[in-house]
């Protein structure tokens, strides 16, 4: 990386304070007439390093590289109250060769969310997010720890998230899209994740997120295939997993291995304690050493026809 081509946001314990509460209040009161600004956004840029900075109280997303390449975010702290709306930590968007590592994030929305454009606009621009690495992230939020989507209309592929620690989360791992999105989510690997006090451990869903306007194409269905989750450990989990594909575009090759989520008992109905289980529909794949046992659609199999057999043989 040549120094003269680099964009650098750096310092020793410097802080950028977005003073977002005035924006959050207007948004909650529905008096806001404009889109809230993000705290730091790079567009059509390359060779970016963001390091050793604290970001706090962003009005909207904190760090948003869009249409960028060769981006490194490391040694940052990102803070916002858990009731602050849409304060995502880092959202690489239609960007390539991005590394997010060694950081602490506690916000009111997803800690890291990989995106690639929204409905018909993302489809038309057609720029995917590719080759994204997320590692050694610790944090908490009412929403997701590691997310893909829901805006994935330009496509998302080749994402690796590993060595993640999540506490007091709404969802640990959330891969999400919707009808009208089009695009694809492909070759996503999440490994070595510890989560504690999480409402839903793993959620992969095709019914998440709204639309920018009424001009989206309801027949533009996303293609979701090749999701590998390995080495996921959780304590005090509400529901271990929910996987809901689309009837006309089932999710394929969802492979779960070495997943151990200790669920908590909750009251259901009249004084009945039930152990929450996996819920699945319109998905195919396989599982190996998963507890609680996954849904039948992902029943363990080592047969040659199992779409996950190559992965399991390498364990």
UniProtKB/TrEMBL annotation:
Molecular function per GO: polygalacturonase activity
The organism's taxonomic lineage, starting at the top: Eukaryota, Viridiplantae, Streptophyta, Embryophyta, Tracheophyta
Protein's UniProt name: Polygalacturonase
Annotated SMART domains: PbH1 (SM00710)
Organism name: Linum tenue
Keywords, sorted A to Z: Cell wall, Glycosidase, Hydrolase, Secreted
Chief location: secreted
Family membership noted in the UniProt record: Belongs to the glycosyl hydrolase 28 family.
A single BP term in Gene Ontology: carbohydrate metabolic process
């Amino acid at each position: 990386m040549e120094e003269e081509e680099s964009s650098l946001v750096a310092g020793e314990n410097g802080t950028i304070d977005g003073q977002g509460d005035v924006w959050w209040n207007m948004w909650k009161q529905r008096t806001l007439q404009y889109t809230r600004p993000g705290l730091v956004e790079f567009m059509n840029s390359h060779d970016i390093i963001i390091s050793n900075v604290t970001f706090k109280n962003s009005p909207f997303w904190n760090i948003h590289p869009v249409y960028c390449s060769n981006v490194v975010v490391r040694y940052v702290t990102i803070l916002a109250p858990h009731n602050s709306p849409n304060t995502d930590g880092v959202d690489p968007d239609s960007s390539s060769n991005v590394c997010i590592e060694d950081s602490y994030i506690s916000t009111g929305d997803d800690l890291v969310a990989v995106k690639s454009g929204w409905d018909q606009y993302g489809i038309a621009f057609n720029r995917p997010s590719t080759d994204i690495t997320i590692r050694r992230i610790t944090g908490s939020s009412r929403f997701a720890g590691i997310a893909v989507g829901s805006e994935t209309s330009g496509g998302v592929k080749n994402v690796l998230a590993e060595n993640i620690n999540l506490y007091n989360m709404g969802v640990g791992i959330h891969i999400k899209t919707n009808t009208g999105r089009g695009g694809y989510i492909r070759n996503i690997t999440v490994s070595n994740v510890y989560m504690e006090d999480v409402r839903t451990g793993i959620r992969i869903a095709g019914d998440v997120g709204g639309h920018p306007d009424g001009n989206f194409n309801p027949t533009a269905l996303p293609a979701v295939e090749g999701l590998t989750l390995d080495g996921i450990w959780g304590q005090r989990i509400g529901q271990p997993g929910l996987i809901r594909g689309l009837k006309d575009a089932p999710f394929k090759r969802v492979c779960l291995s070495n997943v151990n989520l200790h669920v908590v008992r909750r009251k259901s109905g009249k004084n009945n304690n039930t152990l929450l289980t996996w819920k699945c529909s319109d998905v195919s794949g396989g599982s190996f050493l998963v507890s609680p046992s996954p849904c039948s659609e992902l029943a363990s199999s080592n047969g040659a026809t199992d779409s996950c057999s190559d992965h399991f043989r390498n364990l």
